[in-house]
Amino acid sequence: MTIDYNKFISNRGKLKGPSAIREIIAISQQPGMISLGGGLPNPSTFPFKSIKVELKDSSSLTIEGQDLELALQYLPTYGLPKLSLWLKELQKVKHYLTDRESWNLIITTGSQDALSMAMEVLLNDGDSIITEEPTYSGTLSILRPLALNIIGIETDEYGMKPDQLEQRLSTHPSDKPFPKVIYLIPTGQNPGGSTMNDKRKEEIYAIASKFNLLILEDDPYFYLQYGEEKSKKSFLSMDVDRRVIRFDSLSKILSSGLRIGFATGPQFLIEKIQYHQQSSTLHASGMSQVIAQQLLTSWGIENFDKHIESVQQFYKEKRDQFVAALLEHLGDLVEYNIPQAGMFFWMKLKGISDSKKLISQKALEKKVILLPGCAFLTNPSEISSHVRASFSIASSEQMNEALKRLSLLLKEEISN
Ligand code: PMP
User: Fold this and answer.
1) Are the C-beta atoms of residues 99 and 151 closer than 8 Å to each other?
2) Are residues 366 and 295 in the same domain?
3) What angle do CA 309, 296, 391 make, to 5 degrees?
4) Pair (87, 227) in one structural domain
5) Are residues 249 and 354 in the same domain?
């Protein structure tokens, strides 16, 4: 199937073109080129001599010479070439891509930035977009100002329900633009905690193909899968039509402060995002990219995988501690599925119709912070009986204490 990508580009996206200055930076690296064109500050005025990064395993990275120059200077918008190459190799290995397919990758300031740029280059005001219900509040905050028709599709422990999706698309009202895009968080969904298995992904992909929709696969928790059954088949890996843009992040596995994300997908669409970035952040932080590149190069994919295993083990233990605390304190006061990935529990508070009232006042008085379910609903005026609890940071003792306080609160509330 050949996709006409122009059909998916918003009016804003169509107006984004290459910046003359940014294009020069890419060609100024060619051998023998003398550039009087760019506006690069002269690095001899910068105060940094070298940067040493000590790692927890007692090894260290020293950034100096040419690497330091790169870290301190403007970079190509697609990203630091050596990091870009490393990440492309990673994508090839993890998502079974080959060189023959016309895909590309852009490094961004966290995946949040990539998502925001993608939404802007794809969607016009009034356009329709499909998301899971509930969905990531950070994406809703990108979508709301775009004045979109956001269509939330019901989810279960495996994420978006294919029958509901198909039904909704088949009965889409003719007075509203037909959706162009499905936005999904397939692994350790934020906030729902669901993880799609391969079968579910195949079903959703087939529907996207039938109705000719792009899939935006937001997968920052892909490497945080600690369940028995790991999903290795991303939407990107099954993308025979070239309709998937995949969003990855180093935030949950190396550091969220590095602010490094990357989007992978069809050349045409990644180029559109690149034009957007040329006019917004120019490129992700050079310092962060050089640090990440040196670390990843020194590890290679094998040691990257070892690191990932230890991160998974960490979150699995946290998840198990949370389950133990839930069983001890909340028993049948809440309903939930046990997440197989990510860092969130999505809990339905039984007997409570509007969790916001409880969470934003009474829970705070008891010194417990949870997020109310309504923050993740596509319709901002709807109420929810759910809360999102994160188990990434709290110690086992803190989890126990927090859930004990919540249990007291729920008992008080139900008896009133
Ligand atoms: N998508 C989802 C589903 C997230 O949970 C987050 C982080 N909270 C992001 C995107 C953004 O991550 P980052 O910008 O740090 O890569």
Assistant:
1) no
2) no
3) 40
4) yes
5) no
Q: Residue 334 is part of which domain span?
A: 309-415
Are residues 296 and 325 both part of a single domain? no
Q: In what order do the strands lie in the sheet with 344-349?
A: 334-335, 344-349, 386-390, 371-372
Is the N-terminal amide bond of 191 cis, ω within 30° of 0? yes
* Boundary-marking domain end, from 235, 267, 300: 300
Bridge partner list, 347: 387
Within-domain flag for 220? yes
Q: Ligand 1 test: best mutation among 87, 195, 249, most atoms within 8 Å of CB?
A: 249
Nearest CA to ligand 1 atom 10: 112
Q: Which residues line ligand 1 at a C-beta cut-off of 6 Å?
A: 110-112, 136, 138, 185, 190, 218, 220, 249, 251, 256, 261
Kindly give the confidence (pLDDT) of every residue in the chain, 416 residues in length, as a single tens digit, with 9 standing for 90 and above: 789 999 999 999 999 888 777 777 768 778 898 888 778 899 999 999 999 999 999 999 999 999 999 999 999 999 999 999 999 999 999 999 987 779 999 999 999 999 999 999 999 999 999 999 999 999 999 999 999 999 999 999 999 999 999 999 999 999 999 999 999 999 999 999 999 999 999 999 999 999 999 999 999 999 999 998 888 899 999 999 999 999 999 999 999 999 999 999 999 999 999 999 999 999 999 999 999 999 999 999 999 999 999 999 999 999 999 999 999 999 899 999 999 999 999 999 999 999 998 998 888 999 999 999 999 999 989 999 999 999 999 999 999 999 999 999 999 988 87
CA 396/CA 322 separation, integer angstroms: 7
Domain ends where: 300, 323, 358? 300
The predicted complex's ipTM stands at 0.99
Q: CATH number for the domain including 326?
A: 3.90.1150.10
* One domain for residues 295 and 321: no
